Amino acid sequence: MQLPPANLPIAANIYLCPMKSTINRVFILVAIVCGMASCSEPDSIGMDLLAPDQPGVFYTDTFSLECSSIREDSLRSDEVTTAFNLAGSYADPVFGGTVAGFFSEVRLPNNNTTFTFGTSPVLDSVVLTLAYADYYGDTTTPMNFKVFELDDKMVIDSNYYTNDTVALKRLLFSSNVTIRPKDSVAVDGAKRAPHLRLKLDDAFGNDFLNAPSSSYLNNTAFIDFFNGIHVTADANSVAGQGVIASFNLLASMSKLTFYYKNGTDTTRRTANFEINSGCPRFNAFQHDYTIAQFGGTFPVSGNDKLYVQSMSGLKARVKIPHLRNLAANGPVAINKAELIIPVTENGTFKNHNALLLFGVDSLGKEAIIPDVLESPTYYGGSYDAIAAAYKFNLNRYVQKLISNPSLNDYGLSIVSSGGALNSFRTIVPGPSTPSGEKIRLKITYSVLN
Fold first, then answer.
1. What element of type H or E holds 123?
2. For the chain, percent of residues with pLDDT exceeding 90
């Protein structure tokens, strides 16, 4: 299993690796998946036992939990950390409104030098095509998509975050479109893989055809002439409607295509400007929680429900204030500690395929717990559809806490897996849920003589 980046030192308090805000948690996700294809307070040791088979072995799941939901920090979302790019909007009846968009550079056909449209080019049309990767929400809802030309250059190998933006020059497209991520598309009489086709403004296309040849000498000259594109959508205000599409910009179908003729020649020609691995690109998101079911004031109490949302949305915090009661009468050994995170209200807007669990440092930032460094199957976090829950093993984390009373305990943080490249959200029944499944900590332990 790949370990987290070496620049995350082990901290002295509670054996946590603090995660700087400039580190995207996608690196931790890679480390985790690399090897993979409330309750009442326990008043005393031995309370709520389950008839142990072995003397001195005990079980409890009656820890009281203090839970809340808070805003997520901005996440790094450029080409280094994010495989797919998102665009669209929806009005989640619980989480409120979200708008997703991406910024991307475009390059010359085949990274060519001295590209030319030929003699006396005449524009037929210019089309932006984007290959689908996935979608999230209601695909029957028409979306007003927009494409802008950038008014500033992006820089490859720079860090871009989900709250970043680039100045816009002009609008190239604005119209209602319907996302059809599973339907093939007929192009020139042949069926192509599912993709979105947006016919851009002819004036923009003519500017390309009429540009001086010096604009096409190489990619450096071309990027000075054309900085790139921004694709987004208008906000959707109807609860339960809207969709966010995920696009693979490195697919051969994703490109900016000019259809044209040369002078009186009737031959239809094409020029495909590429979005390739040399292009900087990143995702950016906006959330409107004023129309959310839980309101726009944070933190939100998690007694009834906890909320976790991708796209730099929300994360949940959990504290276990009486955890050290386990060792009130003497040392104990943790045999198994498991945090169970069930899911509720899973409908049109799906829950995450996986979540991540971290500790919290003294500054309120995510920090790596030692259990993360074990095998992926041990650590857990994948969604179990049969149990409708996520499960995390916390043996080392719990043992460290109860064995070292002087260590500060700032709680745990539940965050999205792939939070900068997917649109999922998860609702977790809080510890005060009156019946049925709810978030809880299960511990089996041995009392040491």
1. strand 121-137
2. 77
> Strand ranges (DSSP E) for 278-408?
281-288, 300-301, 305-309, 314-319, 332-342, 355-360, 366-368, 389-393
- Beta-carbon contacts of residue 56 (< 8 Å; ≥ 6 apart): 446, 447, 449
Domain residue spans of the chain: 17-75+295-447, 85-279
Secondary element (H or E) of residue 222: helix 219-225
Rounded mean pLDDT of the chain?
A: 88
How far apart are the C-alpha atoms of 441 and 307, rounded to whole Å?
18
Report which of 279, 287, 301 is spatially closest to residue 74, judged by C-alpha positions: 287
pTM to 2 decimal places: 0.87
User: Residue 176 and residue 38: Cα distance in Å, rounded?
Assistant: 46
Of 325, 337, 318, 317, which is closest to residue 398 (Cα–Cα)?
337
Question: CA geometry: angle at 370 spanning 445 and 35, to 5°?
Answer: 105
pLDDT tens track for 104-115 = 999 999 888 889
What's the CA dihedral at 344, 346, 349, 353 to 10 degrees?
Answer: 90
Query: First CA to last CA across the chain, in angstroms?
Result: 36
- Confidence category of residue 32, pLDDT binned at 50, 70, 90: very low
- 127-143 in b/e form (b: 16+ CB < 10 A) is bbbbbbbebbbbbebeb
Backbone angles phi, psi at 273, to 5 degrees: -85, 135
How far is residue 158 from each of residues 21, 22, 27, 296, 344, measured CA to CA in Å? 15, 12, 17, 32, 39
Dist CA 237 CA 240 (whole Å): 9
What letter would DSSP give residue 94? T
Q: What are phi and psi of 425, to 5 degrees?
A: -150, 150
Per residue in 269-328, pLDDT tens?
999 999 999 999 999 999 999 999 999 999 999 999 999 999 999 999 999 999 999 998
Phi, psi of 447 (to 5 degrees): -85, 125
Q: How confident is the model at residue 237 (pLDDT cuts 50, 70, 90)?
A: confident
Q: Which helix (H) or strand (E) holds 399?
A: helix 395-403
Per the listing, tokens 């900087």 go with: 280
- Tokens 């997703």 -> residue: 100
pLDDT higher at 344 or 347? 344
- Look at residue 230 and tell me whether its pLDDT is greater than 60: yes
Q: What is the spatial distance between Cα 240 and Cα 217, in angstroms, rounded to a whole number?
A: 49
